[in-house]
Fold this sequence. Notes:
By secondary structure, the chain is an alpha/beta fold. The protein has 2 domains: 3-258 and 382-444, Crotonobetainyl-coa:carnitine coa-transferase, domain 1 (Rossmann fold), CATH 3.40.50; 286-367, formyl-coa transferase, domain 3 (2-Layer Sandwich), CATH 3.30.1540.10. The chain is built from 20 helices and 11 strands. The chain has a 6-stranded parallel beta sheet with strand order 3-2-1-4-5-6, with helices on both faces. A 3-stranded antiparallel beta sheet has the order 7-8-9, covered by helices on one side. Helix 10 (218-241) crosses helix 11. The chain is elongated and about 85 Å long. Residues 1-8 and 11-47 have low confidence and may be disordered.
Amino acid sequence: MxxxxxxxxxxxxxxxxxxxxxxxxxxxxxxVDAPAPTQxxxxxxRQRTKxxxxxxxxxxxxxxLAGPFCAYQLxxxxxxxxxxxxxxxxxxxxxxxxxxxxxxxxxxxxxxxxNGGKKSVTLNxxxxxxxxxxxxxxxxxxxxxxNFRPGVMTRLGLGYEALHKLKPSLVYCAISGxxxxxxxxxxxxxDQIIQGLSGVMSITGDDSNTPLRVGYPIADSLGxxxxxxxxxxxxxxxxxxxxxxxxxxxxxxxxxVTMGWVVSNYLxxxxxxxxxxxxxxxxxPSGTFKTRDGLLNIAANKQEQFEALAEAIGRPELIxxxxxxxxxxxxxxxxxxxxxxxxALMARPAAExxxxxxxxxxxxxxxxxxxxxxxxxxxxxxELLQTFADVPxxxxxxxxxxxxxxxxDANPVVASPPPRLGEHTNAVLTELGxxxxxxxxxxxxxxx
Length: 448
């Protein structure tokens, strides 16, 4: 047998073993208004179709957002995610969120957002016994994700090279602010730091109030989604070759990559990006406009859309005005054009204009709040939200977002509610061969 064939067979055996050990708890609630499915219903669903990552075990050694968000995406697709947390305190996100009572209970809203479906195991990786537990876990796993500073895992004797020897097919993903190499690799990084260093803040806002931070942790989120994409890609290759991988994710790189248009305008077009508020630098009229009762985003980016807009708002003469007749002229005169359009938009409320313009083939949408966005019938119809009515340790239901896509036969689903700290420690250690007396000893020593 060739070496490559042996590796492929080994990888397939690993996946079969992982499938055998994966539990049957990935039903969850597909509809926020539907009753929670019974175990029988979950089993029936799994027999009908398997999730894309069914049989894949992920060790999640991450904290706060970028790493947990990565592992959450993999879990939504059916992977079994074991979250390894510091004893007594766990993931810092357990103490973060708008509700102080949840933070005190170590179930902060920030933690709940991207840890549904995971198993929580407490583990002190600084202890010898803790390291041994991880070494036992690695051969059972397919993926390991960590977001420590570069070099931390290596100093613990648990870096990629060491773990690769235990499991050659392991996909090891390291997420950090700046990557594993370069002059800034050891610098601490949070989302806002990356937003500033990437240039995102310099183009957010307008001339009077820039630089501004994007209103949610966009750099963390981009790092997490990029890491999930890289892990899934490495798993595809591993299925064919048996080959593992070391993935080095830089949040700074990820953020700059997604700024492709403005970066390209500078690198290729020689144009230094500047803040433009709610206006679109590629076209006009394209941005946010005042109506009788609120703000409306309009993106009349094409010539035919501009002409349709002028007709729809009762200002057809704008089409023939030399200041607005073609794309570049409209961009040069966008301020004047905005004034003329807003005069007409004052005749109706934003919701009416949204319907009128969309019917005419002009992209338009109201500017709404987050609660309004979540109540949108479109979001409801897509079943983006999943609710757990009964969450152990909490006095309320928990509603989570699922993946931003659907699948023809196995839609992404949150397998179970976010775990309490250490909820699955005993079960996982027992699977690894630890006796109850061993587990009590480890707990008394602060290892778990």
